[in-house]
Amino acid sequence: DVKVTQSSRYLVKRTGEKVFLECVQDMDHENMFWYRQDPGLGLRLIYFSYDVKMKEKGDIPEGYSVSREKKERFSLILESASTNQTSMYLCASSLWTPNQPQHFGDGTRLSIL
Amino acid sequence: QQQVKQSPQSLIVQKGGISIINCAYENTAFDYFPWYQQFPGKGPALLIAIRPDVSEKKEGRFTISFNKSAKQFSLHIMDSQPGDSATYFCAASPSGTYKYIFGTGTRLKVLA
Fold it and tell me: Is residue B62 classed as helix, strand or coil in its secondary structure?
């Protein structure tokens, strides 16, 4: 069965800290995605990657960076966390061909104090 | 900016009733329209999806209706059950891309 695992369910960090969110998929998918989910705003794409070391900005990349050194792992980095980055973060993966279902992890709820 | 507008924001339905969630898109050519279901504490899970060459797709109690000329698509849940209580997201994928553009979500509550 398809599995996308996010390393932390809940995370509390302080303003200014560098924060790493990790995601691993076991489906050999080429594409991986990071979204943030906020009430009333739906899911908004932060970054996605279509291959190892390849990345593209999504709709809200400011304040974030990503790393994909291995096919199965995609990391989201908050370079200097701010309170407006308090949110639910969702990772997803899909096959490389267009119009494929995206499979989601259960999310990391991040609080920046 | 590309948008998918979803309504209503929340919906309360009696058990056995029909739940209807609507989405509309603007301007851009989309060629894949998935619906996701999300329970509290869980990530979204694909429920059903449709391509624009089909006007309707049914899977069990869930049906997607697609109106290409009106740029609208909707999810119908027949014989709604309390276990259907969740947040539903529509999405649209621009032609030839991997990306989705999500609607803002509908929180459905089905009363027993």
Answer: strand
